[in-house]
Design goal:
The structure holds two protein chains of two kinds. Helix content of chain A is 13%, strand content 34%. The longest helix of chain A is centred in the middle third of the chain and has 9 residues. Chain B has one domain: Immunoglobulins (Immunoglobulin-like). Chain B is elongated. In chain B, β1 and β2 form a beta hairpin. The chains are: A mainly beta, B mainly beta. Chains A and B meet through β6 and β7 of A and β3, β4, β5, β6 and β7 of B.
């Protein structure tokens, strides 16, 4: 329901993202009692990056550049993953001004598994659980100061994570 | 989907550690069921965490993230009693969100 007759008809999601707290409270959107917060937006999802088959293509699609190896990126992954459907992987970095972290599993059908946006004030570390189809190199990429740095580790998988 | 998100956010000093567990099948689209039919991809695409009116973390997930995905990260500036909002949207447009209190 449009409380601002002069405003253009905009999609509900755009109203939320526009996020002027007072106007949201007046719009009577009963499902959203938290006017200052917006919701996860599917438009942020980098569809192309999740389709590609090579590390280079994934990094180009996500960041527009390629990565150099760095010992300031730490990749914590098991030597042997007993269950390829749930492999605990953590990435952290001591590099300054980290803005993004991406994790690739090179032998998966699509190499990019997950990417994270790190705003200022958030630590450069993430722990997650990924599926691995089979034994594969896992690459952790960190975006810092506009450049990409990576660390690689091979993880052996005994039972593949794609339902095999 | 409602009630899919569980969050624990604890502050120590000036750092808040957030752990979240989201109930979601995260079907990759590569698995066939017992009849040989491919189960279509159904996975979370974006997870967003907000504190103090700003985004503190965004996860962009593909089908290779495990079922019932777990996530842990930390940020600065939170304190006990503050609100932390977690929301997600998947490839079918389904979404859920939760407002949690930082401890």
């Amino acid at each position: 329901m449009n409380e601002f007759p002069d405003a253009p008809m905009v999609a509900r999601r755009t109203i939320l993202k526009g996020a002027v707290a007072g106007s949201l409270a007046g719009l009577g959107l009963g499902a959203f009692p938290w006017p200052a917060f917006a919701d996860a937006d599917a438009k942020e999802w980098p569809a192309d990056a999740f389709k590609v088959k090579s590390e280079a293509d994934a990094l180009k699609a996500l960041y527009g550049k390629s990565a150099e190896a760095s010992d300031k990126v730490s990749l914590d992954a098991p030597e042997i993953a007993e269950n390829g459907a749930v492999v605990p992987i953590a990435v952290a970095s001591t590099l300054p001004g980290v803005t993004g972290i991406a994790i690739l599993v090179l032998e998966n059908p699509n190499v990019l598994a997950a990417a994270y946006k790190i705003p200022a004030g958030t630590e450069a570390s993430v722990s997650n659980r990924l599926k691995m189809a089979k034994t594969s190199k896992v690459v952790a990429v960190v975006e810092s100061g506009g450049k990409l740095y990576s660390a690689t580790k091979e993880v052996k998988v005994t039972v593949g994570g794609c339902g095999g | 989907m409602a009630g899919t998100i569980r969050v624990r956010a604890t502050t120590s000093g000036d750092t808040t550690e957030v752990q979240s567990l989201i109930r979601h099948p995260m079907d990759s689209g590569f698995v066939k069921d017992s009849k040989g039919q491919t189960i279509p991809a159904h996975h979370i695409e974006v997870v967003q965490f907000e504190h103090g009116g700003k985004t503190v973390f965004t996860a962009l997930w593909g089908p290779a993230v495990s079922k019932d995905p777990y996530l842990k990260f930390s940020f600065k500036g939170g304190k006990a009693g503050d609100d932390l909002k977690v929301s997600w949207v998947d490839n079918k447009g389904t979404s859920d969100s939760l407002m949690a209190k930082i401890q």
